[in-house]
Design a protein that fits this description.
alpha+beta, 171 residues
């Protein structure tokens, strides 16, 4: 009985310590997205326009927000790439044009993502008019087709979401 009580006390203390460390090290993904949106654009974002996201093809809009002044549409999107792993991208649209793009988290299965980054595949979309953009028709990077598709699927999700909900013919 005494051994059981000692083990119970150890388990309780371990659980409390684990909970404490989780509390002080937890990073809220929504707040992290707000911070990155603001850091990348210099704009203020007070509320997420769509915190639920939407799956589009092999991509997904994770978060979508509009800056408080209404000028910047910010997306955190992810796309399926090599072996089903994901590539996250941040995409910003102003006046119907992609004004900035950057990488977020990249799944470790995307072993050739550095080739994609070196080829500046994501950056090639900056300056593109969203209404006429077909991201999936862009060329992939030689030797990194799977990782390239992850980027293209993410960009496509953000672009199609924008067309459907913000700047499309029906809006």
């Amino acid at each position: 009985l005494q051994g059981v009580l000692v083990l119970a006390a150890i388990a309780l203390c371990s659980g409390l310590l684990l909970g404490f460390f989780n509390m002080i090290t937890y990073v809220d993904p929504l707040q992290s997205a707000y911070d990155r949106f603001s850091e990348d654009t210099g704009a203020t974002f007070s509320k997420m326009t769509d915190a639920e996201g939407q799956t589009i093809g092999d991509g997904k809009v994770v978060y979508y927000a509009v800056s408080d002044d209404g000028q910047v549409h910010a997306f955190l999107a992810e796309g399926k790439g090599f072996q089903g792993g994901t590539v996250q991208v941040y995409l910003y649209v102003q006046d119907g044009v992609i004004s900035k793009a950057g990488y977020g988290e990249v799944d470790t299965s995307q072993t050739y993502i550095d080739r994609v980054k070196d080829a500046k595949l994501l950056e090639s979309f900056v300056g593109s008019e969203v209404s006429s953009l077909n991201a999936l028709s862009a060329d992939t990077v030689s030797g990194a087709t799977g990782s390239s598709k992850g980027v293209l699927n993410a960009v496509n999700a953000a672009v199609e979401y924008y067309k459907e909900h913000v700047g499309g013919e029906n809006n």
